[in-house]
Predict the structure.
Amino acid sequence: MHTELPKEVEIDLTPARLSAQKNVVRAFYKDLWDKADLTLVPRIFHPDFTFRGSLGPVLVGHQQFGNYVGWLTNTLEEYTSDILELIEEGNRVSGKLRFHGIHRRTLFGEPPTNARVWWYGAPIFTFDGPLVRDLWVLGDIHGLRTRLAPSAAEPLSFDRAVSARP
């Protein structure tokens, strides 16, 4: 199983170099997720915030989100978020991330491989004042599932000529 992470470098995450909103995003990934520090949830999110995670769940509020963090960080040991890009416009911050960890529990029906698995995510944080009101993350589920079960992955083939549609 190929488990090596792509050679990409995190952006400079020095707090003094980031805006207030980007610092919230930095704390969300590097402190809340990477350290599974759920005490940060009320400092980052409105009580009834909405969340659509990179693996697909749609959740509302602190409790549901906390349960998700606990489940994923237990499923993937050494869970880590690599912040590769952050873009800010008005009350929104989006970016490119890579999530990874060691596959220790069943995920998408695949038994533990004890290998490092990873996937990309593209979040959009919507702020309401200093707190996040909504977080929507598109995740590369296909890439993750391919790394969980490489033998089941069907490779794309572009070697056949495709005729133009009439």
